[in-house]
Design brief:
This protein is α+β, with helices and mostly antiparallel strands. Helices cover 43% and strands 14% of the residues. Helix 7 packs antiparallel against helix 9 and helix 13 crosses helix 14.
Length: 420
């Protein structure tokens, strides 16, 4: 039996010819365990063995057999090592369970290649929101990156997979004006939640921050609220988190006098109860849930305010008109107004989210010339670049631009720009 030795010392590898006429490479892993692999030619076996010895000496050895581990098995081990916030874990677990594991769970890690991952991402782009596609790719790459670090595979096939950029949508239906909030949205908001919407819109608080407001963080005499805790929602259950999103999130935010009046009226109609003394609760006195509030309160409020779809009388019935995800117009007739409102709220694609009240607040401040450092502080941004990215003169001001260009005077030779 022919034998070719490669390397040297106790862990030396060698090549033997088999009875079937093929060539088998033998080597010992750094742990001392002997491995083997069969090749058609002696040259292939020797080249492979040389690569093994080189990787061992360089501390980069990856067992060819380790790649047989199923993606799902390593994914569960990787997920069990997470130490993220509960809300982040819940979100990522949902994406893994719904999108990633159904695709890759039964694959051996070593069988996953770059082309397959790219094809999958491209396919998802036609089905899911681009932000969701990006999360699917991020989590898939996270599992594979962990496999590389744990010497199960030699490289991450998800590296350099192209994820389509997020589309830039028209923000006209996202940023609401102060007049729209006061004259349209608030009158259409159910009485129990009117002060909540007013406070969120005119303080810029995040959802979890505004519904976590308790009486120990509200000073109506001084006209401000303090962000000292948040409410998180995981799998339909809510709980207090005794600190904000970040260090910068702990802040004091002033309120307009009319919002303070709204809060006083709210407390008279809905006195605080329970040991937490929460300012805003559901009808049962518990913490509000984002998904239920969106479906039952916020979206129907936008419909009644005329900011989502179209609702009109059609004889003795109500006509609901909305735009679907496919971009096509849809319509239906209903006997009761509330059913027509619910139809639009459920099926109309787009519209302002509750979080867009926060974006609107930041936009108002920036457009009114509030210094960026003050906008950053009141918004609770950890980094000023976030403020600069989203809230510096966001709305269009064509009059100011044309004025600077001297557009109102044909004899003007450049106006403000001429002096530059």
């Amino acid at each position: 039996m022919a034998r070719l030795a490669v390397g040297g010392g106790r862990l030396m590898g060698f090549v033997n010819r088999t009875d079937a006429g093929k060539w088998k490479a033998f080597w010992r892993e750094p742990s001392g365990k002997q491995r083997s692999k069969t090749f058609a030619t002696k040259r292939e076996a020797s080249a492979f063995l040389a690569q093994v010895e080189t990787s061992k000496s360089g501390g980069m050895y990856v067992s060819p057999h380790a790649g047989r581990t199923l993606f799902e098995d390593h994914a569960h081990a990787w997920m069990a090592s997470w130490n993220n916030e509960a809300t982040t874990v819940a979100r990522d677990t949902s994406i893994m369970r719904t999108h990633v594991l159904p695709q890759w769970g039964s694959w051996q890690l070593a069988k996953i290649d770059h082309l397959s991952v790219q094809a999958w991402v491209t396919e998802l782009t036609g089905k899911l929101a681009r932000s969701t596609v990006a999360e699917c790719k991020r989590l898939t790459s996270g599992v594979l990156r962990s496999a590389v670090r744990n010497r199960l595979i030699g490289h991450n096939p998800a590296e350099d997979v192209k994820v389509p950029g997020r589309r830039v949508h028209d923000t006209d239906d996202k940023i609401v004006t102060r007049r729209q909030v006061r004259d349209l949205i608030l009158p259409a908001t159910p009485d129990r939640y009117r002060a909540l919407v007013a406070t969120a819109a005119f303080s810029g608080l995040r959802w979890g921050e505004v519904i976590a407001l308790c009486m120990d963080a509200v000073d109506l005499d001084a006209g401000n609220v303090r962000v000292i805790r948040t409410v998180i929602e995981v799998a339909g259950s809510t709980s207090f988190k005794p600190y904000p999103k970040s260090r910068a999130g702990r802040r004091t935010v002033p309120l307009p006098a009319w919002v303070v009046s709204e809060l006083r009226a709210h407390l008279e109609r809905y006195p605080v109860e329970g040991p937490a003394r929460m300012l805003f609760t559901n009808e049962a006195g518990g913490a509000l849930r984002r998904t239920l509030f969106r479906a039952r309160v916020w979206r129907p409020t936008l419909v009644r305010a005329g900011l989502l779809g179209n609702l009109e009388h059609a004889g003795d019935r109500f006509k609901a008109t909305w735009t679907g995800r496919d971009g096509m117009a849809h319509a239906a007739l209903w006997e009761r107004e509330r059913d027509a409102v619910a139809e639009i709220a459920r099926y109309h694609h787009g519209g302002a989210s509750f979080h867009d009240l926060r974006h609107s607040y930041g936009t108002w401040l920036a457009d009114d010339g509030v210094p960026v450092n003050k906008v950053q502080r009141v918004m609770g941004h950890e980094n000023v670049t976030t403020t600069l990215k989203f809230y510096v003169r966001k709305t269009e001001d064509h009059e100011a631009i044309l004025g600077a260009l001297g557009d109102d005077d044909p004899d003007d030779d450049g106006g403000a720009l001429a002096a530059v």
